[in-house]
Amino acid sequence: MVDQPGAVVQEDPWMSAQALDRLLKMPLLLPRIHTWPWWFPALKLRDPLVFYLEACLADPIFGKTRVMIPEIEWMNQDLLMVEKVNYGSLIEITVFGQPRVQNRVKSVLLSLAARHRENRA
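== Oocyte-expressed protein ==
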């Protein structure tokens, strides 16, 4: 046991304690941006659905660092691009995927936007 004063600590030959400490202190890698998932066929990139929302609604819907976008993409089997336009007062949301999925995602995001507008007012 390590807690006993006379105990001998055997180090793992694969990883020392200092190396583990260094690994734990390293920052986490950010997710890649715009990497197409394996399940997404390139044919669905032809007709994207584009709509706009107020920029102040982007953080409540997608998170401060847009962490919700990959989850939304995975759940709906679509791709989302969220970009600021018009000097930061609007965000452009581009949805790639099947038309019914595009409409569903747009409907969900507009419903979330309406709910956040009501809560903000």
